[in-house]
Specification:
By secondary structure, the protein is mainly α. The chain has 2 domains: 28 residues; 142 residues, Ferritin, CATH 1.20.1260.10. Helix content is 72%, strand content 0%.
Length: 188
């Protein structure tokens, strides 16, 4: 029985890894995966719950800024990454639902945040990114660097299912950072 449990866990990990790597899980970054080894919602600390709620909002901030700047500058990097940020939101949303936590956005309207600090940050980033294409790409770098720092802090001591999603989000953020950096090198 123990061997069967170990084998089924190993198969689940392999399938999860393959699905995450090759994108066969629908919602992106583990959004629709079920984690049998995940702890119950009650076992999350208040900080872990707050972290999940915050990460959803941070991913929305990134998506909304990229949509707004993408519309202003019509640069492919913004259009591509805004779609990735939506997948990031979906992945964190699946964790919020799994742990019976509230989705922290009353309206999904672009650029609208219930959190006053995030609203102010969105306004500041869009204002800076609207000055020039170079400023817009620098805003992208700032967002991704902030996202990476937050994820690296929040992944510590998180349950395994949350760590998996945060790890995937980290990989995505590093890719986004490279894309913004590469595009910045082309702008004079």
């Amino acid at each position: 029985m123990k061997k069967l449990l170990v084998l089924s866990t190993l198969v689940a990990v392999i399938l999860t890894t393959a699905n995450a790597r090759w994108g066969h899980h629908g919602g992106g970054y583990g959004a629709n995966l079920q984690y049998s080894d995940a702890p119950k919602a009650a076992s999350l600390t208040k900080k872990q719950k707050d972290d999940l709620i915050f990460m959803y909002q941070e991913e929305k901030l990134a998506r909304d800024v990229y949509i707004t700047l993408g519309n202003k500058w019509n640069l492919r990097v913004f259009h591509n990454i805004q779609r990735a940020e939506q997948r990031h939101m979906d992945a964190v949303k699946s964790l919020l639902q799994r742990y019976n936590l509230p989705i922290p956005v009353v309206s999904d309207k672009i650029g609208v945040f219930e959190n006053k600090e995030l609203q102010a940050l969105y306004n500041k980033l869009v204002k800076k990114g609207s000055k020039s294409l170079k400023d817009a790409l620098e805003v992208g770098k700032i967002i991704e660097e902030t996202d990476i720092a937050d994820l690296e802090e929040k992944i510590q001591n998180a349950p395994s299912d949350i760590q998996r999603v945060y790890s995937n989000l980290l990989r995505g953020s590093y890719n986004h950072l490279r894309a913004f950096t590469r595009n910045l090198g082309r702008v004079r």
